[in-house]
Amino acid sequence: MNPIFADSETSVFETMSRLARETGAVNLGQGFPDDPGPLDVRETAAEALVNGWNQYPPMLGLPVLREAIAAHYRRFQGLDLDPERNIMVTSGATEALAGALLALIEPGDEVVLFQPMYDAYLPLVRRAGGVPRFVTLKPPFWRFTESDLADAFSPRTKVVLFNNPLNPTGTMVGRDQLTLLARFCVAHDVIAICDEVWEHVTFDGLSHLPLMAMPGMADRTVKIGSAGKIFSLTGWKVGFVMAAPHLLRVLAKAHQFITFTTPPNLQVAVAYGLGKSDEYFTKMRAGFARSRAVFATGLTERGFTVLPSQATYFLSVDLGEGRDDVAFCEALVRQHGVAAIPNSAFYATHKVTSTVRFCFAKHEATLQTALDRLTGASVA
What we know:
This protein is of the alpha/beta class. The protein folds into two domains: about 5-30 and about 280-380, Aspartate Aminotransferase, domain 1 (Alpha-Beta Complex); about 40-275, Type I PLP-dependent aspartate aminotransferase-like (Major domain) (Aspartate Aminotransferase, domain 2), CATH 3.40.640. The chain is about 40% helix and about 15% strand. It has helices at about 5, 10-25, 40-50, 65-75, 95-105, 120-125, 145-150, 175-185, 225-230, 245-255, 265-275, 280-300, 325-335, 365-375, and strands spanning about 25, 85-90, 110-115, 130-135, 155-165, 190-195, 220-225, 240, 305, 315-320, 340, 340, 355-360. A seven-stranded mixed beta sheet has the order 2-8-7-6-5-3-4, with helices on both faces. A four-stranded antiparallel beta sheet has the order 9-10-13-12. A two-stranded parallel ribbon has the order 1-11. It is globular. The N and C termini lie far apart (about 40 Å).
């Protein structure tokens, strides 16, 4: 068996979710909302399933969805995308990431990764034959410097895999750091694969800036989005890939041999959803922001040091120097009945072991139950 997968440990998400099931704990580990998602989008999918086309759709995606994606990103991010030449639909963002890495990396190519990082990145890079080079981000601000990039980039760098907003930290990269990263990509002739699935789940009046829009990056960026995150429908697995034609042509070949296509009724529904009024997106963000405020306030009142969260469904707490986040999370689920994720699980090297991630995308009653159980846990 391939050792990349055969020798990999059970993911921390599965471990904590199993413990939550076994103990009856409130599961604030996995990142999914309690809410079922917008009714009109779900009804559109149901109608399209019963009365629409259910055979193979076009490999690149239904034209109606690709047109909706182009209009959506022109409206919200000012990007000029051709539905025919710049856009592809995939079966989720993870498929898009896998396809991009398999398409763009040859054995021995170096890939710059920012850690903490989504757990799928490293095995996918290694399976594609890439050699990882890490930029390590640390709390409380999780920023990188020019020196960090200089240490990671080399003449062998082929790809940088960049997640913004960042899971697990809930932080956003501003224009200054995007400009710095773009400068390194151009100087080293590097392609950026940008995991931007959290681009709409932002708070405090902050707006997402795509790396693709930075100087010199339009022709060297693969931008990836997710309907599951935009509409809180994490099980739908509908992803968007945006890239220059010379890149998309190769990415499409990888997609062809992975999933080939995506359920057409979901594509129809996502196309409808992307055209929803600004009110939907504003209310969606406001709802998550309220949940964030309730949970952050409650944690602070219970003695936790809450780190800033600008985006995503997540916030982190800092346990303090010398603490063991894995042991803390195991004790938390067994002794206090709340499941969380140790952020050290998102590192490959030079692990930061003092922070823990919670998902706040839950009903207020669920969050309050968790907070009641967390009383006294910060000093456990």
